Amino acid sequence: MKTSLLLLVLLCGSAEAAVYNLHLVTDNVPDYTSLESLVQSSTGQWQTPQDKSIAVWRWGRRSRRQTSCATEDGRYILDPVLHYNSYGAMNCGIISLLNIASWRQLGYQGRYIQLGDHTVSEVSWDSGRTWHLFDSSMSVFCFNHAGEVASCREIQESHACELSGGKSEPGHYYLYHYARPCGSHPGPTGWRCAADQPVEYNRTLEAGASSYTDGFSVDEYCQAARWGQRYTLNLRSYESYTRYWEPLDDVQRKGDNSANDPAYFRPMTDGSDPDDQHGLNNLRGNGRWLFQPDLSVSDCRRVFYRDEGVTLRAEDGAGPNLHPTQAGSSAWVIFKVYAANVITSMRIEADGTRGGDTDLLRILVSRDAGLNWNPVWVCGSTGPQTARVALRDEVAGVTQCLIKIAMQAARSQGDVGLDALRVTTITQVNRLTLPKLTLGVNQVLLRADDQVETTELWPALHAGAYRRTVAAEDSVYSDKQPDGMYKATLGAGVDGRECSVTWRLEVPTDITGVTYAAVSTNRSPRSYVSLRHSWDGSQFRTFHLNRDGDFPFDEQVLCTLAGSEVPAAARQAYFRGVFFCTSGAGTYNMPGIQDLLMRVAHKPRDAAFEPIEVTYCWTEHREDGDVTRTHTELVRSLPHRYAIHIAGRRDPTLHWVRINFQGHGPESASQRYGYSDGADVGTSWERPKVTYRWDEPLAVGKPYTASRASNSSSGNPDGGRELTNGIVIAPTDQATGKNVQEATAFWEAGEPTTFVVDLERECQVAGVCVSTHQPNGRFCHPAGIEVAVSRDAHEWLAGGMIRQDDLWNPPGDYEAWEHDDDPQYAALPAGGRLAYSFPLAFQTPVTGRYVRLICTPVQDRGMGLSELAVFGKVEVRSWPGDVTLPDLASLPRLP
Predict the structure, then answer these.
(1) 48 with 145, same domain?
(2) Reduced to 3 states, what is the DSSP secondary structure of residue 96?
């Protein structure tokens, strides 16, 4: 095995380089690097506060799944950047908090709303004069009669209009004026069609409206938001990072997800895989870091994080490749793993030697910035050594980790040391937020922020866990439960005197800046919370004072010290929390902090730039079969923007994206640039996005004929009125049952079926919207629908053609349900898109009484139909795009 590790090192290039704080993004998904980049990229193309707020809702719901909540050390993940990048498993309360954080980044106000059975949030963009309700958990918002997003209070009130037949009732806006992507059809029976399980869980508009009409409370006691985390993507020589859209344990078992491996996921509170929540199977992906430094070259020092008393064979010609400088003294080197995403497990492979029983050789790891070290391998024999260490709990749950190789030679420095080291780090990624590619033209951007290293500490504060990381404490009290929004977790333990707690972080190079993100809580004007900073541990400066005791009790604090505020050669930073109260110490009412994040930026040991390889792998779904391709871009400077063109019937299936320096990827020198098959399919596959506004429904309640009868053995035949009753099916694999009986009907495989809808009068017809249903492999969406209009049912004017593949190019404001990309539906013609409303706007409106729809089934499959809707007016608008990429001229350049 020793030879194998050394051979792998020799196959890699030898150039030493490092680039810090990279952003790899596409124009299909926001930039989740920081809260600032997330909000700018997701809202930048919109002009009005309402549209920007809707964009926050849109990307909030797209970036998560409705499940139990992910936790670390018993704490909820409440920071948007951390949650969206690595987890994505959350309930209504957490997504409400994340939305509030994004709205506050926009400069708006946000507040938390507690319903009787649910939690939502509201935003105000006019200093609290008006409020607007968004529910990312149940995937819904609605408008008032003025066209503004309605508030909880407005939903609770009674209103009426022609849509309700003039009937005034509470919940009117929710029932009849929901945003089009959010509801299947108006009225109490409509489903919230973009929710998790709209039919199975009875997510009806009536059930949703009752959450407001039954009463709610506005939380005025806390702001319920926090931020400060960053997605830190660094790249060094000898390493590559590959992020997979599938769980790696499933890939290794060829798609079998029956027994998931805990080494590949961060467990939910019950120990389960996030993908096992509600049968999701479409949330968790994985990342794999490979780090294999070449210990035989002197430049290897540039990837050391810190070292003492070590020498390389290339420097003195003696001993193993990495060995003590002199006998009798302790020697060690620390390597840092910047995982970017949350670590789930790690494998350390090392080859070395231990000459005698008195020589020492150990491997230790730290998950708290070097404050505590855990020995994971101790050499207990002599001679050549092979360490094969599998780690999980020792390193999991953090995004940064340190590995220390400690050694001591008793007689000769060449008696002990390492010849080779290989570290494989597995991370958990949220597949919903990866920088994906879609059908057509994809813009890819690689850029970098300030070239600094960062050391982070996010200490647990509850149940005494803070003691593992503090430098000093004085009379503080640690609550048994983690932060609860309304109360402090760590605070004053004694009345009538200042209580304090201090953390210290030390870094190996000069500090360029420090950021403290904390949530302070004070419930009384006779108490206070003072947050302080020091460079030397003796002189502290207050940067936050919370002493008014007024609502909201919690205050999100984000303090950054940089530039001239940082003394020369500073290599340590201290945070101190000081808490005082006259009464309530050690109770719910104590002043203190709920959360703390320390991030120290410091000069990089190595900031040399070398060309970077970015590789995507995907499968295109073409008419003549699937084709798997890759594209590798060689990036010679930053920022760098380029295009990847993808062909097919639908969006590709993404497999992975990898980043590494030139010559340091798995293919090494054999890497082929451009497309793996040498074929650029061009831009013709790009399809513009539009939205539709439908008006003057003409077919509701109208009679129609069918050229052949529906299937009666399905248990859900057409009763003769179901296709124009105004009831539209939501995504579901249910084909029978009372709750879907009036919403869908089925026709067996065979010849096309012709439907003729009698509008009962001549009128202008501007378009149709045909809703269809694919509950299983037997009944699917039609292969095609030919639409025509006639005055007399004899002479027909063509209106247009709908094809099944049109569902892969939905309107720009379309919102899919949570199982749209669920692997359990992958074998179906339309995958998880079980219900869809096909829009067809005529090029020119046609006058007529009869509308004919010739529906052709997919070969050897039946078809499910839900509603044949006809409209007198259709407004088609271009869609401005999903995200905004920054102007290259505004970005820092490297090298």
Answers:
(1) yes
(2) helix
Please, are residues 343 and 336 in contact by the beta-carbon 8 Å criterion?
no
Neighbours of 377 (CB within 10 A): 18
pLDDT, one tens digit per residue, over 694-725 is: 999 999 999 999 999 999 877 778 888 899 99
Report the C-alpha gap between 60 and 430 in whole angstroms: 13
Q: Are 585 and 501 a contacting pair, CB within 8 Å? A: no
pLDDT for 12: 43
Q: What angle do CA 130, 131, 134 make, to 5 degrees?
A: 155
Residues 414 and 339 in one domain: yes
890: Cβ contacts below 8 Å, ≥ 6 apart: none
Q: Give yes or no for a contact between 872 and 694, defined as CB atoms under 8 angstroms apart.
A: no
Query: Residue 124 pairs with which residues in a beta bridge?
Result: 109
For residues 463 and 390, membership in a common domain is answered with: no
| DSSP tag of 680 | -
Determine whether 109 is exposed, middle or buried from the number of CB atoms within 10 Å of its CB (0-12, 13-18, 19+): middle
Which CATH number do you get for residue 166?
A: 3.10.620
Q: What is the pLDDT of residue 257?
A: 59
Are residue 492 and residue 415 in the same domain, yes or no? no
The domain in which residue 119 lies consists of 34-219
User: What values do phi and psi take at 451, rounded to 5?
Assistant: -85, 80
Within 409-510, strands assigned E span 416-430, 440-448, 453-457, 472-474, 476-478, 490-492, 499-506
| One domain, residues 417 and 471 | no
| Amino acid found at 174 | Y
**Which pLDDT tens digit goes with each residue over 613-662?**
999 999 999 999 999 999 999 999 999 999 999 999 999 999 999 999 99
Q: Phi and psi dihedrals of 418, rounded to 5?
A: -115, 145
Lowest mean pLDDT among 12-16, 110-114, 266-270, 274-278: 12-16
CATH code, domain carrying 407: 2.60.120.200
Determine phi and psi for 599, rounding to 5 degrees: -135, 120
Q: Do residue 39 and residue 158 come from a single domain?
A: yes
Is residue 736, in this structure, part of any structural domain at all? yes
Between residues 553 and 855, which one has the greater pLDDT?
855
Q: What is the tally of structural domains in the chain?
A: 4
* Joined tokens for residue 498: 């200042």
- Contact of 249 with 301, CB cutoff 8 Å: no
CA–CA gap between residue 114 and residue 117 (Å, rounded):
8
